């Protein structure tokens, strides 16, 4: 009797549950189809579709979680109270230059740069902090929309002094700087310029993917997501480029697209045409300004410097991933970097530097062989009367620096 009642109860419960599911699905047919075929956030010029890292989360939870903490993902974002590092507090919200002063003020949850041109009645409307460029390790720059045209704000933020500074390369008077693909290409996953060549600063605002997200390093991945959501038992990756089958140069190019200098000489398509797996030199190269042998600058050219190092030249497999985990924020993990040096150098070459000194420095190989070096191209002016200050960047020319010891 009890058994029968239990059976009846569970059947009723099951029927109710099935009905609920049925009603839910009839009412929301979109939800399931959107899951099985997520909407594209943007479409690359070759037709491949971006779906964003949120779609990766369910199947690559660990990588997704650590990727959220990286400077890559956070290198651009919408402007808001969390993302903007500069201060809007009275007293520290002013950037005063020779013939112009800027005041940073919040209003209704948004943030604005007000321009006061000294000794003139000319008025400029306040410009909103719409986009933040830079995770804030060294500093941030800010962009503003005028309709669908993108401009850089003159005020930037400099982390070491926790203050507003004149944006690198700006004069000390007020200037509107249009932002084209050539500037933004390394700080976003994808944007669609209305002018295919990327020369203009008018964008499709709806096709704007912030941060260096999964699909910038793994190509637009809609087909991969759709396939695996529809075939959950398939355990082998489909429609996804496999790094372990790429050549060393292809693996390097995946990082070199943003870490080998500006590459502003476009040979094919536009700044976003190159995708991992292609040959980067066929898409874009650096302009050589004058002498081909001018020393490489430390800013943004880790690729050029590393490939000039003996460690790179005399091994067949070294690439960026030999030392870096691309999914992890490794800032300050000096110990783990030194382990990478030691792993190779115990068997091959042992340090011939004075061993006392090396012991004293706790085997800090990189302190002596990859010293931080001031950049010549990345400088900021702190105030109207100060000289330019350089950003210090870790050189990737692994070598013997005798003068530093
Ligand atoms: C419905 C599940 C699912 C979703 C969603 C998904 N993947 Fe995958 N992915 C897999 C499976 C299964 C594999 C193969 C097993 C593995 O390597 O984890 C894989 C493997 C990979 C690989 C390794 C390829 C190789 O063999 O070297 C990459 C890279 C990858 N996925 C990227 C992504 C990205 C980026 C996204 C989001 C845009 C994503 N995946 C979304 C299921 C999924
Ligand atoms: C789309 C351009 C782009 C690609 C592709 C790219 N990077 Fe970066 N990377 C950046 C930018 C921009 C920053 C500066 C981020 C910031 O702090 O705002 C950066 C920062 C870094 C940092 C410093 C992180 C920190 O915590 O400060 C490392 C290390 C790095 N990249 C390594 C790599 C490696 C390795 C690859 C290839 C697997 C790669 N990057 C691919 C643009 C890129
Ligand atoms: C060729 C790729 C590339 C281009 C183009 C580029 N950047 Fe960067 N940017 C980087 C990299 C890489 C870094 C990290 C520091 C480094 O390695 O030199 C960086 C760092 C920065 C930082 C400091 C970020 C931080 O968290 O400390 C700011 C701000 C910045 N860039 C703004 C800009 C602006 C504004 C433009 C356009 C005028 C621009 N960048 C163009 C690659 C690029
Ligand atoms: C800066 C570039 C970059 C970004 C951003 C990035 N990856 Fe990767 N990913 C790589 C590289 C390079 C490898 C190959 C590493 C190796 O061979 O050691 C890789 C390997 C993988 C693998 C296979 C190996 C493993 O570690 O399981 C998966 C899966 C993967 N990535 C998923 C993702 C997902 C999901 C995201 C976003 C949440 C993401 N990646 C973001 C560069 C990147
Ligand atoms: C993949 C293996 C590998 C890794 C990892 C590696 N090296 Fe090397 N390194 C080499 C090889 C091979 C040479 C060339 C040996 C020779 O000079 O005969 C070399 C040469 C050097 C030299 C001599 C450079 C010169 O110009 O004479 C120094 C210094 C050095 N490495 C330091 C480092 C440091 C510091 C690290 C960690 C940041 C490191 N290496 C990581 C393989 C490696
Ligand atoms: C031999 C090891 C090694 C290799 C290979 C290597 N790096 Fe690094 N990288 C380091 C070390 C060590 C640091 C400093 C980390 C720190 O200071 O916390 C670093 C820092 C960086 C930074 C941050 C620089 C700064 O000062 O903010 C970037 C960007 C970067 N690497 C990109 C790359 C790229 C791109 C490649 C491939 C072309 C690459 N790295 C290859 C060891 C390496
Ligand atoms: C206190 C600074 C310092 C530290 C720390 C240091 N080195 Fe050196 N290293 C030197 C100097 C200086 C030389 C050049 C010695 C000479 O030729 O007179 C050198 C030489 C080398 C060489 C070249 C040897 C040859 O025969 O050409 C390698 C490889 C090397 N170091 C690797 C390392 C590794 C790996 C570490 C970390 C375990 C390390 N160094 C830590 C200062 C240092």
UniProtKB/TrEMBL annotation:
Protein's name according to its UniProt entry: Cytochrome c-552/4 domain-containing protein
Database matches in PANTHER family: C-TYPE POLYHEME CYTOCHROME OMCC, DISSIMILATORY SULFITE REDUCTASE SIRA
Database matches in Pfam families: Cytochrome_C554 (PF13435)
Signal peptide positions (record): none
Annotated ranges, domain Cytochrome c-552/4: 180-218
Phylogenetic classification of the source organism: Bacteria, Pseudomonadati, Bacteroidota, Flavobacteriia, Flavobacteriales
Alphabetical keyword list: Membrane, Signal, Transmembrane, Transmembrane helix
Transmembrane segment boundaries: 7-25
CDD domains: Cytochrom_C3
Species this protein is from: Maribacter algarum
């Amino acid at each position: 009797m009890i058994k029968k009642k239990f059976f009846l109860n569970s059947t009723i419960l099951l029927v109710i549950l099935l009905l609920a599911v049925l009603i839910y699905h009839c009412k929301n047919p979109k939800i399931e189809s959107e899951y099985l075929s997520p909407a594209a956030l943007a479409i690359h010029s070759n037709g491949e579709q971006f779906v964003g890292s949120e779609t990766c989360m369910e199947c690559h939870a660990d990588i997704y979680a650590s990727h959220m903490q990286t400077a890559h993902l956070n290198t651009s974002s919408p402007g808001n109270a969390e993302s903007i590092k500069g201060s809007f507090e009275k007293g520290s919200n002013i950037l005063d230059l020779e013939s112009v002063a800027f005041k940073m003020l919040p209003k209704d949850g948004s943030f604005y740069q007000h321009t006061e041109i000294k000794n003139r009645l000319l008025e400029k409307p306040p410009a909103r902090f719409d986009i933040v460029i830079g995770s804030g390790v060294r500093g941030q720059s800010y962009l503003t929309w005028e309709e669908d045209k993108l401009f850089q704000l003159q005020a930037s933020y400099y982390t070491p002094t926790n203050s507003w500074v004149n944006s690198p390369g700006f004069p000390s008077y007020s200037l509107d700087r249009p932002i084209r693909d050539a500037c933004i290409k390394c700080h976003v996953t994808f944007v669609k310029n209305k002018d295919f060549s990327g020369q203009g600063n008018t964008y499709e605002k709806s096709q704007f993917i912030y941060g260096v997200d999964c699909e910038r390093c793994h190509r637009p991945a809609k087909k991969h997501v759709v396939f695996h959501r529809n075939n959950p038992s398939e355990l082998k990756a489909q429609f996804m480029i496999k790094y372990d089958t790429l050549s060393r140069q292809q693996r390097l190019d995946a990082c070199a697209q943003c870490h080998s200098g500006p590459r502003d000489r476009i040979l094919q398509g536009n700044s976003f045409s190159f995708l991992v797996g292609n040959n980067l030199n066929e898409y874009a190269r650096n302009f050589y300004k004058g002498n081909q042998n001018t020393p490489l600058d430390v800013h943004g050219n880790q690729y050029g410097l590393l490939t000039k190092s003996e460690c790179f030249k005399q091994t067949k497999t070294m690439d960026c991933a030999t030392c870096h985990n691309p999914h992890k924020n490794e800032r300050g993990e000096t110990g783990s970097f030194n382990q990478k040096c030691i792993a190779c150098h115990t068997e091959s070459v042992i340090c011939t530097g004075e061993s006392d000194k090396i012991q004293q420095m706790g085997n800090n190989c990189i302190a002596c062989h990859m010293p931080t070096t001031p950049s010549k191209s990345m400088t900021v002016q702190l105030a109207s009367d100060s000289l330019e200050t350089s950003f210090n960047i870790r050189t990737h020319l692994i070598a013997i620096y005798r003068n530093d010891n």
